[in-house]
Design brief:
The chain folds into three domains: 6-143 and 266-328, FAD/NAD(P)-binding domain (3-Layer(bba) Sandwich), CATH 3.50.50; 153-263, 3-Layer(bba) Sandwich (FAD/NAD(P)-binding domain), CATH 3.50.50; 342-446, Enolase-like, domain 1, CATH 3.30.390.30. Helices cover 30% and strands 23% of the residues. It is built from eleven helices and 21 strands. The chain has helices spanning 15-26, 41-46, 48-67, 81-105, 179-191, 210-222, 313-328, 357-362, 377-382, 411-423, 428-433, and strands at 6-11, 31-34, 109-111, 115-119, 122-125, 130-138, 142-144, 171-175, 194-199, 226-229, 233-238, 244-248, 253-256, 258-261, 265-267, 300-302, 342-344, 350-354, 367-374, 388-395, 401-407. Strands 1, 2, 3, 4, 5, 6 and 16 form a seven-stranded mixed beta sheet that branches. The termini are far apart.
């Protein structure tokens, strides 16, 4: 008989925690998982999934406008926010149920209450019960950050609440210039909301390739989004008619029905008992872990956004899988975090994998840059002012493709496929030798012959 109640206790039933629990249970481990919110975590409940559904909904505005150029007469489209909101919520509920069912089929004990760490091998439940565990995995994700705090900032909402707005706002202020802020700005602009983005830096989407950043900024402006760059909100107030007023650092004011703060997310580690148990945290409050996701306490592991490494759902899932395999299958492995593809679901869409031009130069690579910009075929009849941009960053000595970047329709789908080639070390010669699939936008990645610059 084991000295522990369970072999693995998982705190947090999001993507990473659920994967770890199911894989560990499949290896024969006794597993318990605790969640004090809905099963599914940020991605399923208030992140990637409902956001992408809103993105799909918003893009019908462009499709309806384009249809006339292709011979369709649809009349005057009318958008119903309440109908889309409720259908998205129904899908989220369905997916949460599937996550629960997966845990149940894996014979994992589910505890729907708050759990905190009471020691290297102990977990305290809000019900008063204490559970002993050979290993503890923290997978509590992140939470929206409202930093920096400004007077009147409590009138704002975060990305957690935006999915449940009672009505479509006529005007919205979005604070932030990262992918969450820009995605919601893009979505609501196409729903008909007048959107203003306030961002303290001089351009959007920090950390991405500069050519993508500039072209996305232009695309947002073309969509009618007002960009207030290089500015901050000094304070806010609620007006007698219920609207919000934001006072900007240059003296301007903006009135809006909704102020959405999307300035980032913070690791969800407060009041979990981590520091009392000896688990080291960094200055941002994230759990410090090694390449195998092990914390400073040998029996306690952490995966996903709570570690603030690469905060993407597929990364959390793979980290959880690696921990479960390493602890219970005899196969010890860690996640390779190099060359991870990512996307920004604005309209136009961004997809990218590998090094940006700036990063490659900073690492000392001699470069050839291949790029193209063109009007997509669908825009030739619709008359839409739409451009696609593609870029390859190539090491001119080895000919290896170091990075692939795209802005435009289906960028995420195309870059996901290209990520395989980039990861395998494909050269520009390999791209050139690949036959084009015509007519398609993706063929441009294999037909760029002359470098734009060395």
């Amino acid at each position: 008989m084991s000295e522990f109640d369970v072999d693995l206790f998982v705190i947090g039933a999001g993507s990473g925690g659920v994967r770890a629990a199911r894989i560990a249970a499949g290896h024969g481990a006794r597993v318990m998982i605790a969640e004090d919110d809905r099963i599914g975590g940020t991605c399923v409940i208030r992140g990637c999934v409902p956001k992408k559904l809103l993105v799909y909904g918003s893009r019908y505005a462009d499709d309806f406008e384009d249809a006339g150029g292709f011979g369709w007469d649809l009349g005057e489209p009318r958008f119903d926010w309440g109908r889309l909101r409720d259908r998205v919520e129904a899908e989220v509920t369905r997916l949460s149920g599937l996550y629960r069912r997966g845990l149940e089929l894996a014979k994992t004990d589910i505890v729907e209450t708050r759990a905190t760490i009471a020691g290297p091998h102990k977990v305290a439940l809000a019900s008063g019960q204490t559970v002993s565990a050979k290993y503890i995995l923290v997978a509590t994700g992140g939470r929206p950050s409202l930093e920096p705090v400004v007077p009147g900032g409590d009138m704002a909402i975060t990305s957690d609440e935006v999915f449940h707005l009672p009505r479509l706002p006529e005007r919205m202020v979005v604070v932030g210039g990262g992918y969450i802020a820009l995605e919601f700005a893009s979505v609501f602009a196409r729903f008909g909301t007048k959107v203003a983005v306030v961002h303290r830096r001089d351009n959007v989407l920090r950390g991405f390739d500069e050519d993508l950043r500039t072209r996305l900024r232009d695309g947002l402006l073309h969509a009618g989004i007002e960009l207030k760059l290089g500015l901050t909100i000094e304070r806010g107030e609620k007006l007698p008619d219920g609207r919000r007023r934001a006072y900007l650092s240059d003296g301007q004011t903006i009135d809006a029905d909704v102020v959405l703060v999307a300035t980032g997310r913070s690791p969800n580690t407060k009041n979990l008992g981590l520091e009392e148990a000896g688990v080291a945290l960094d200055e941002a409050g994230a759990i410090k872990v090694d390449s195998f996701s092990q914390s400073s306490v040998p029996s306690i592991y952490a995966v996903g956004d709570v570690t603030n490494r690469i905060n993407l759902t597929p990364v959390a899932i793979r980290e959880g899988h690696a921990v479960a395999d390493s602890l219970f299958s005899g196969r010890v492995w860690s996640v390779d975090r190099d060359l991870i593809p990512t996307a920004v679901f604005t309209t136009p869409e961004v997809g990218t994998v590998g090094l940006s031009e700036h990063e490659a130069r900073a690492l000392g690579h001699p470069l050839k840059i291949f790029e193209t910009s063109f009007r997509p075929m669908r825009a030739t009849l619709s008359g839409r002012e739409e451009r696609v941009y593609m870029k390859l960053v190539v090491d001119s000595f080895s000919d290896r493709v170091l990075g692939a970047h795209m802005l435009g329709h289906d960028a995420a789908e195309i870059i996901q496929s290209l990520a395989v080639a980039v990861r395998m070390g494909a050269t520009k010669r390999d791209f050139d030798a690949t036959m084009a699939l015509h007519p398609s936008a993706a063929e441009e990645f294999v037909t760029m012959r002359v470098p734009a610059r060395d």
